[in-house]
Amino acid sequence: MSDSLKKYSFSDLLKQGKIRIPKIQREYAQGRADEKVEEIRKVFVHTLLLVVKGKRPATELDFIYGSNRKGAFEPLDGQQRLTTLFLLHWMMGMELRVAEDRKHSVFTYETRNTSEEFCDELVQHDALQLVKEALAVSKKQCKDLPPSAIIKKRDWFKWEWKYDPTILSMLVMIDAIFHEMGEDWNMDMATCRQNLEHITFHLLNLGDFGLSDELFIKMNARGKQLSDFDKLKSTLEEELQMQQKETNEQGLPLATEADEEMWRSMMDGAWIDLFWHKYARQAIIDTESEDADARKKRRLAAAKLSEVQFKKLLLRLIALQLLENDNTSKQLAEAAYDMRESNIDGLLFAYTDSLTELRSGEKHAVVPTTTPTLNFKQLIQDVCSLICEDSNGIYFEISYLLPDTSHIEKDKRTLFDSFLDTNVPNDVELTFYAMLLFLRAFPASKTRKNEQELAAFHFDKNLHRAWLKNLEAWVRSARNILLNDNNNQRIDKLQFSKEATFSLKQMVKDLATYVHEEGLNLEKDRHAVKKFLKDGTKNYQRLDNQSLAEERLKAALSLLDDEWEERIDEVEQHPYLWGQIRCLLNWSDNHLDAFKKYSERLLGMLGCIKDYSLTYYIAMLTFMPNCWEENNRLFLYNKDRDNSFKRYLREHTREGQAYGKNIKALIDLWTDSYPAMSAIDFLKALIADRQENCAPWIQCLVKCPTILDEAWNKRIYSQSGHVIIAQRKTLNGHCLDPILLYLRNVCQKDKIENDRFTFYDSKGEYEHAFQLQTDNHQYLVEWYGTEGEYSIKTDHETAAIVFAQQDMIEHMEKIIHGCGLAKGSQVTAMG
Questions:
Q1: What is the pLDDT of residue 78?
Q2: CB atoms within 10 A of CB 11
Q3: At a CB cut-off of 8 Å and minimum separation 6, what does 723 contact?
Q4: Within 13 A of 299's CA, how many CA atoms are on the CB side?
Q5: By the 8 A CB rule, do 686 and 605 touch?
């Protein structure tokens, strides 16, 4: 932590000089006679006095920040806490008069003359003497007489002070401290005063950062505390003003007055209007018929949401700026990388902290190229590029014009919406960044309503259809390349994300170069982006180049034939595939008719996998018994990056091998041998036709498919010829024998009492075994060696008998079905 943020006590702060509450601040409020405030005051004073009494080692009051002006520290946040600390120190008998003249208080209010006079007068009097007097009178009269009552009766207490809300609040706080001390006023006050040093706060002196006291200038007429959004707004304005005093190494100012004018105009104009229209306008309309309280509550919530979303946009755009800058330090990059709503506020602290050393000296006007600073021109351009206005004066964001097929998920949330989610994953952030890069390189043609407007926002989509098609093609391709469940290239770490960021910048540069060299116009040629993709050959670091190759092939096919474009668009919209169709392109060998047939079959099969997964798994095992061996799994219908059908459909392990080869083979069989059947009927027919020729463990699954539910992520292993299903990622955990699980299921189905059969897994008393108690005998079935056999040991045989798998299953089925178990018998331990 920098020196500017070290811990201070109230007396530490006074060592630097006076404390003055500036005019822009509101009245002292912690002493208000309000139930909510009273509860807050009670808890706060109790906490402070625990430290004063030595019952608590210390307490920290968070951040207090402000700046030095005219020989005094003026708090811009922390006024309430500092005022309470002033009163607490006075009550404990601290000397709080200015040493030079002893006529003025070291702590004063500039908000009203009366408040200033009261502070100066108060410190002239001994608080502990007032306390003694109040205690004595209270004891004598047997009723409470607070110090405030005594103060108000003093001849030095002016009549007009009774109407100053700050003074009245101070008197309430004095009484609160008096009552909270209670019987402890007889403590050693010297010790109490020493304990005051353990009440600390972090001091942020804005002067150390080159900032002025305008941070909190945005106050309403009642002096209401700024919202988080207003604080951000003012902080950025301060930074903008600071940059006007700074130059780069070429002598050019980092920002200009024109930038500030544009910034203020946009912040209070089109930008906030966008968020108001998007998040609050409809809520206001919807609440017209509600009662006043409900209407007010919902409208306030809508207004707050507008501000929160606006704040997130600004901070995340700033984060993108820092991440795309080669010179951003690791510490600052880490702050920019953490875009979670709960943490994004820390970005500006990290940013200002990164400039502390540069701006702490008297001469810091020249900012080196290697020092990242906010680029306000770029930030203004970026926000403006996202905003459009229709003919009715309603503002909307640009991705609203794109079809649902360009969204991150198959829902109604635009890319803009996804970027402003509470948490924004790397793939969403980078897809949004790709759109932003496109808007920078090929800005939309917008018009002004009149000459007075500083920026143009009116956008008629009907006049820019070609440009919108190019934007759609770019965003969809970027989404398909970057989406976590569409690629095998990790972008889930800071370094990976930065590498992908730089590659996207290069890709847009390559697009701009291509457009220029080919003489293309994105406003006239709707296929410009697809032409770039078709002709591209370059690979890019950290982008999934297999997905990029798929986008290039889709672009090439779409340019060949409009029907290709229609079919690709149609299949890509499937909620599970969602942009990933390379298996279909591979299977069809770029033939449209084959593509249509495979598409129809695959979508049907995926629907069946989703709704009848066990039927699919059993059918696949009867059709291709070793289908699990290559990956030790059957895959899941989810969007997991590593263990999903989607992953299987986009990879092949050997050159020339089809993507998702087992599913392709299954679909080929369906097409060739069962063409008229639905997917589910085909799978059932396949199971019926092939189950007799399957391995015994698969036949057990056919009879009892729910056995597969015992397998974690549908993982299957072979251990010394023994097929087992796993309950963890590896064989180190509990593993289960599917044949023995089947025997357990037979017992359960025959309603045999649970205490008569026992299943043992790989970690059981017997490794992979099944024990059964009948009327007459006990049976212990165990996996036997490596030849795919089982042994059965009974209590009346001296040695175990070895069975082939199918023979053992049939033998035990007969015993279970016809054993005539005696109720209440117990399985006894066998040696």
A1: 86
A2: 16
A3: 695, 697, 716, 717, 737, 738
A4: 14
A5: no
Strand pairing class (59-69; 199-205)? parallel
For the question of whether the overall pTM of this predicted structure is more than 0.85, the answer is: no
Low-confidence ranges of the chain (pLDDT < 70): 1-5, 36, 206-227, 360-364, 653, 819-831
Please report which residue ranges of 324-450 form alpha helices under DSSP H: 330-337, 346-354, 356-360, 376-386, 415-419, 426-441
What is the pLDDT at residue 218? Answer: 36
CA torsion through residues 379, 381, 387, 392, sign: positive
**Rounded CA gap, 772 and 792, in Å?**
11
99, 152 contact by CB (below 8 A): no
Helix count and strand count (H, E) for the chain:
33, 16
The helix (run of H) or strand (run of E) holding residue 224 is: none
**Residue type present at position 12:** D
**Alpha-carbon distance values, 690 to 20, 625, 626, 699 (Å):** 89, 11, 14, 10
DSSP secondary structure string for all residues of 713-730 = GGBEEEETTEEEEESSSS
Q: What are phi and psi of 326, to 5 degrees?
A: -60, -25
Between CA 357 and CA 334 the distance in angstroms is 19
**What does the DSSP 8-state code read for residue 781?**
E
Three-class DSSP category at 394: coil
Residue 279 identity = Y
CA–CA dist 507, 437 (Å, integer): 10
Taking CA 384 as the corner, what is the angle to CA 380 and CA 386, rounded to the nearest 5 degrees?
A: 125
- The torsion of the CA quartet 441, 446, 450, 454, rounded to 10 degrees, works out to -30
Query: Are 790 and 725 a contacting pair, CB within 8 Å?
Result: no
CB 302 within 8 A of CB 283: yes
- Sorted by sequence, the CB contacts under 8 Å of residue 362 that are 6+ apart come out as none
DSSP state of 62: E
Per-residue pLDDT of 118-127, as tens digits, reads 999 999 999 9
Query: Contact at 8 Å (CB) between 584 and 599?
Result: yes
What's the distance, Cα to Cα, between the start and end of the chain in Å?
A: 67
SS3 746: helix
744, 816 Cβ separation under 8 angstroms: no
Cα(299)–Cα(159) distance, integer angstroms: 43
Nearest-angstrom CA–CA distance, 234 and 236: 5
Task: Please report the pLDDT score of residue 704 as a whole number.
Answer: 98
- Using CA atoms, how far apart are residues 91 and 85, in angstroms rounded to an integer? 10
C-alpha–C-alpha distance, residues 189 and 692, integer Å: 94
Residues 734-750: pLDDT tens digits?
A: 999 999 999 999 999 99
Reading the block at residue 295, the tokens are: 């209407």
Angstrom CA distances, 374 to 322, 354, 359, stand at: 8, 12, 14
For the beta carbon of residue 382, count every other beta carbon within 10 angstroms.
Answer: 20
Q: What is the Cβ-side half-sphere exposure of residue 496, based on CA atoms within 13 angstroms? A: 14
CA distances from 813 to 169, 773, 777 (A): 86, 14, 15
- Are 279 and 420 within 8 A, CB to CB? no
Helix (H), strand (E), coil (C) string for 437-481? HHHHHCCCCCECCCCCCCCCCECCHHHCHHHHHHHHHHHHHHHHH
User: How far apart are alpha carbons 547 and 481 in whole angstroms?
Assistant: 5
Contacts with 68 (C-beta within 8 Å, 6 or more apart), sequence order: 16, 17, 74, 205, 207
Whole-angstrom Cα distance, residue 104 to residue 120? 5
Q: CA 77 to CA 21: how far, in whole Å?
A: 10
Structure tokens at 501: 């960021």
Q: Which of 52, 56, 32, 27 has the alpha carbon at shortest distance from 42?
A: 32
